[in-house]
Design brief:
This protein is of the alpha/beta class and 113 residues long. The protein has helices spanning 2-7, 66-76, and strands at residues 16-20, 52-57, 79-82. Helix 2 (66-76) links the parallel strand 2 and strand 3 (79-82).
Length: 113
Amino acid sequence: MTVAGWAARHTGPVHSALLVTPPYLDPAWTPAPGEVVNVVIDHVPRSPLPFRALLVASRNDPMTTFEQFEAYARDWGADLYDAGPVGHLDSTAGFDPGRRASAWPAPWRPSAS
């Protein structure tokens, strides 16, 4: 979500982005009066990103359904990688993007340089 928010306001030499299990934020959501929220942006831009992107999605993420991941990927013009039922992928869950990199779509695999 941070990448989409940044890309909506900036241009620059970005080669590509790896978007890992972004949490879903309802486009109609607004905080209730007096509600304290812990978010960086107040909405998720849904326009195409000006660079290529790979969205890594989980089939059983507690914050986002697979259909919501598909909608993000479609709106942002990102390739979608189905990581399977792996929960919410973050550093506290032990996610290591390099460990699964060989299974990523060919154009997204890290080179051995």
